[in-house]
Write a structure and sequence with these properties.
Blueprint: H1 2-17, H2 23-33, H3 40-43, H4 54-61, E1 68-73, E2 85-86, E3 91-93, E4 99-103, E5 110-115, E6 125-127, E7 130-134, E8 139-144, E9 150-155, E10 165-167, E11 170-174, E12 179-184, E13 190-195, E14 210-212, E15 215-219, E16 224-229, E17 235-240, E18 261-262, E19 266-270, E20 274-280, E21 286-292, E22 297-300, E23 304-308, E24 314-318, E25 324-328, E26 340-342, E27 345-349, E28 354-359, E29 365-370, E30 381-383, E31 386-390, E32 395-400
Antiparallel strand pairs: 1-32, 2-3, 3-4, 4-5, 6-7, 7-8, 8-9, 10-11, 11-12, 12-13, 14-15, 15-16, 16-17, 18-19, 19-20, 20-21, 22-23, 23-24, 24-25, 26-27, 27-28, 28-29, 30-31, 31-32
Helix pairs in contact: 1-2
Length: 401
């Protein structure tokens, strides 16, 4: 009987990790029937139960609210993860219905719609005068930002779960099957493809890629960070952020599911059930590493590296050597978004739909506001006078900082 239960659990976890909609509910139902099986390693990835102590609730209740600038909304995200983007004169947001809604960045009023006529699977990318989106069918759609006119459609190998990125006449697209495609920005024609080794069990990642100085930086399943030449598709270097360890397939998951961050000297990434590590940009040589687990992500400013841990803590490290500066654990029990750094503040969303504003020097939470009570999964997006978030229900909120 035990072996049967283990087999069923592995089957359910595989469905979740590969992205089957509704599978987490199946696991919860299974856990009720097979109560002696520990599914914490699975539900941890997807924000299982939220548990805050009475002391935490009391401390959070007295924190002042963040200043709300405006709010609006789009269609609920369903199985996809969406993030808005700030354009030249508008904020763009979308839901699964495929309508790219233009909002005034100051007032939040909607003043136009680009109807893609497709069901979309990820957020909006912007660059080279274009807006870029992807679909569950592996279609990449390009629109002229100013007019909203369609420019081209390209087909890649599988669903596009993250915003395509445009740089230097190229469009870089990451697909759900672990490939990176480079397309010509003018025509959408394929220029090259990168595919690395993929473990048998992986976490579904909604992370895009980081592009700087014609180098693409991307984290992969298995804990590897890869630097790829944008123009040629050749690997410049490969580094190990975390190595899989443990006796079971679930324990051995050490995937990088978030976007790397960088400055002029180093690029850093964090892995689930693994480590945070920083590497030299030119060579990929490791500078420092610390044990931590995060499937949300990290941010960087002039002095510190900030990590949203899986258990709900935010940790600040000295970015030069990895010294622990502070740890804010008042949000333990919640699932956090990747952090955003603005001036002397760090903004992070959570699984209860709150935005939290934190001092960057000591980690104190100085402001906190509720949106629509649905999870904020993606990184807050900077605005000239604050930041904005998009919730799982499609709410778009702008806050001052």
């Amino acid at each position: 009987m035990g072996s049967i239960r283990r087999y069923i659990l592995l089957l359910m976890s595989s469905l979740i990790l590969s992205g089957c909609a509704g599978a987490i509910e199946m696991v919860r139902d299974l856990a009720r029937d097979l109560s002696d099986i520990d599914v914490s390693g699975i539900t941890d990835l997807f924000g299982g139960g939220v548990e805050l102590s009475e002391e935490q609730i009391a401390q959070l209740a007295v924190i002042p609210e963040t200043r709300l600038l405006w709010q609006n909304g789009v269609e609920e995200g369903e199985a996809a993860i969406f993030v808005p983007v700030l354009g030249s004169d508008a904020v763009y947001a979308t839901g699964a219905d495929g309508r790219l809604v233009r909002f005034d960045p100051v007032s939040g009023k909607a003043f136009g719609v680009i109807d893609t006529k497709h069901r979309l699977s990820g957020g909006i990318g912007r660059g080279d005068g274009m807006l870029l989106v992807g679909t569950f069918k592996g279609e990449v759609l390009a629109f002229e930002e100013k007019s909203g006119n369609p420019l081209w459609t390209a087909l890649v190998s599988s669903e596009v779960l993250s915003p395509p990125q445009a740089s230097n006449g190229m469009v870089v697209v990451r697909t759900g099957d672990g490939r990176i495609f480079c397309l010509d920005a003018a025509t959408g024609k394929r220029k090259w493809i990168y595919q690395g080794a993929t473990p048998s069990l992986t976490v579904r990642s909604f992370a895009s890629v980081l592009i700087a100085n014609d180098i693409i930086y991307a984290g992969f399943a298995g804990g590897k960070l890869i630097a790829i030449n944008l123009l040629t598709g050749k690997v410049a270097w490969e580094a190990v952020v975390a190595r899989p360890r443990g006796a079971t397939e679930l324990e051995r998951i050490a995937d990088i599911t978030s976007l790397p961050v960088m400055d002029e000297q180093q690029v850093c990434a964090v892995a689930y059930q693994g480590r945070v590590a920083c590497f030299e940009i030119a060579t990929g040589n490791q500078i420092w590493t610390r044990d931590v687990s995060s499937n949300a992500g990290l941010a960087m400013d002039d002095h510190y590296l900030y990590v949203s841990e899986n258990q709900g803590a935010i940790v600040a490290y000295d970015k030069k050597d990895g010294t622990n500066i502070w740890k804010q654990d008042l949000l333990n029990g919640l699932k956090l978004s990747p952090p955003l750094v603005q001036d002397a503040r760090v903004a992070v969303g959570d699984s209860q739909g709150y935005v939290n504003v934190i001092r960057n020097d000591n980690g104190a939470i100085i402001a906190r506001s509720l949106t629509d009570e649905s999870a904020i999964i993606t990184r807050p997006v900077p605005l000239p006078n604050g930041f904005m978030v998009q919730t799982r229900k499609g709410g778009v909120y702008a806050f001052g900082i």
